[in-house]
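Entry for NDP complex. Fields follow.
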Amino acid sequence: MATHQKRKLAEGRKHQNMQNDTKASQGQWGRAWEVDSFSLASILFLLMFAPLTVYYFIMSCTHYQCALTDPLLDLLTGNKHLSDIWNRTPMLTYRAAGIYFLWVTFQVVLYVFIPDFCHKFLPGYVGGVQEGAVTPAGVVNKYEINGLQAWIITHVLWFANASCFHFFSPTIIFDNWIPLLWCANILGYAVSTLAMIKGYFFPTNAKDCKFTGNFFYDYMMGIEFNPRIGKWFDFKLFFNGRPGIVAWTLINLSFAAKQQELYSEVTNSMILVNVLQGIYVLDFFWNEAWYLKTIDICHDHFGWYLGWGDCVWLPYLYTLQGLYLVYHPVQLCTTHAIGVLILGLLGYYIFRTTNHQKDLFRRTNGNCRIWGKKPEYIECSYMSVDGTKYYSKLMTSGFWGWARHFNYTGDLMGSLAYCLACGFEHILPYFYIIYMTILLTHRCIRDEHRCSSKYGKDWKRYTAAVPHRLLPGIF
Ligand code: NDP
């Protein structure tokens, strides 16, 4: 991969002086420089309401048995005041602060101080030092890919504790869920604020910073592209890939343990949620090197959106199904359970295969076979800030010939499966599929906007060849 990247750079530089002919149709890629009023309004809305939304969902479960509309109805009918709800909410505790501090510190230690050894004995796994994509300023960052190792060590210790050592109860996460929420918020705001200050005063790479001049936009969407402390502590990889995602499976295990404690059994729905989400998380770590080529790392700057989102939104809202099942232990009939399993696995298969096809195609520069044939593609070019011209290819066969983001479609099928595992009694567990549909549709449009300004007329040729975004023939 490293050799390919170097070849790409060299090839790009070779063509540096041949750029004027296509300059008019190419833009520089990256975040918007000018903030329109709609974006600003959306950002202000999110900054104000996203933390409230997380609180509302969790509180609906802890205070109202996951009945999402009940708190609102209580407030609107005057049955309860805000203060009544707030007074019943557990506050920050020293215990939660201690747990959270130890958790994050442990993940930092695993990330920074333990070089990857998994790639030495796991065939097919790509770990250790890897290169990211070329940034808009033409930089290629190096990353220590050791997330799988961190995940394995953490989970081995978790199971060792649960079965042998008994230092703490496996229900510890559930038992401290709201106090831990305050800790996650403190870290989320702290890291976003630090990223903003760092972007102004000591950026890692000044050329990859974007200042729109709008404080809220910069805070939310980030200034620095790849903020780092020292050589290896990369904010984006750490906060995106650790403590939230490693915690995801532990949180689900803690919910399963709570079900066992409360009802002396773990329902098949809880097992399905643990297994399907576990596959998704494990897939993320197995493919962490691939993750370096996704939008989060290749295009997004690091601000509140990623910093707070990874610390709070992800661990709290992506795990709602497990939380719900603690309050409503659903035992599915065999047909329902098998249906959910098939949908989840099929969604995962599409998600992974589509991502794999693009990764293979890009890694081999199109010299590979997709579904037994040489891939079809469109040649395209783009420019970085310093005017260097690069060449790339957009695949138009395999799943990438079905739709421009069929990986999102697979992801959505998997997301729906988690929700369907919870039965049909309440809307709360369906938040995930509603959110993912909005997120991935918006992400699809955002990505296409960026690709259009990056590739110009070449992008138009591509969209003419693959006309649909998510669903062939429909959207
Ligand atoms: P993609 O992996 O689809 O990457 C999009 C990029 O791929 C484009 O910007 C472009 O980059 C390149 N590209 C687009 N079309 C082609 C093509 N035809 N051939 C080759 N390259 C192409 O998107 P994401 O990074 O958003 O998503 C990665 C995965 O992560 C997805 O499966 C998604 O479902 C999942 N995801 C999950 C989330 C969650 O919260 N659970 C959130 C977000 C994503 P370039 O500039 O290099 O050409």
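NOTE: Residues 210 and 241 are 23 Å apart (CA to CA).
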